[in-house]
Amino acid sequence: MANLKEIRSRIASVNSTRQITSAMKMVSAAKLRKAQNAIIEIRPYAGKLHEILGHVVHASGASVQDNPFSRTGKTEKVLIVLIASNRGLCGAFNTNVVKRAIELIEEKFSHLFSDGKVDIITVGKKANDPLKARKVYVAASHHEIYEKLDFKTVSVLSNEVMDQFKSGKYDEVYLIYNEFKNVGVQLLATELFLPVKIDETESARESDYIFEPNKVEISDKLIPYALKIQFYKAILESNAAEHGARMTAMHKATDNATELLKELKLNYNKARQASITNEILEIVGGAEALKK
Questions:
Q1: Domain range for residue 57?
Q2: Number of structural domains in the chain
Q3: In terms of Cα–Cα distance, which of 109, 104, 78 is closest to 193?
Q4: Is residue 206 part of a domain?
Q5: Catalytic residue at 117?
Q6: Are 79 and 166 in contact (CB under 8 A)?
Q7: Which of 83, 90, 97, 189 does the annotation list as catalytic?
Q8: More confident residue, 64 or 34
Q9: pTM assigned to the model
């Protein structure tokens, strides 16, 4: 059994750690509330925008394939946008995203990856090291987005990705991120960002719209905007999921520290009791020796 000094030192250390994890849990809870409100507000908007886009494409009589962002053909080069976080201490949040990217490459693009035709862009610092450990090249990292997370900041990156697809640099673009479900659950999402695909059955319903200036022009402007909203929504989902994952991880860490403290205090009391008993025995033994 460890001596009293060692146990006291461990108790102080664990207690300090528990205070930190408890504080981090409260900070994440405050940030989560704001992030959760943002994602709840944008979900109906993004869904309705996609629905309107389907109606416009159907009503225009033109195929969505006529738009440059809907270009299809042989897939020769792929871009994966991997959305992670800038900070750790959120469980397997970042690791799961990296694993999903590796799985996607192995399942669909192993031949392209071996030829160096699969690029990965990361949003957030914490995905870079796991990718490098797996010898996966990171083309660019955009951790600055989280410094000021708003539509304008995200639009800079989404425009860059869209321009690269439009120029023919990439044939397919995928988004991989954690989708926020609730505080304790994050769902891995893999979305085909480009080329744009619209469900013809959903868009085939009749709609009573008046189009100004004309249907084709609206369609051409609506598709890029819908893509930017989709990209922004994915990052907001990941941001909310990150705070939820960190809050859960810190809650578990605090509970574990509390249980460890109970065990350490019990061991301390046992060790202290044993020490006192030994001292009493020594005193009694010394007194008996003096009588003789």
A1: 27-247
A2: 1
A3: 78
A4: yes
A5: no
A6: no
A7: 90
A8: 34
A9: 0.87
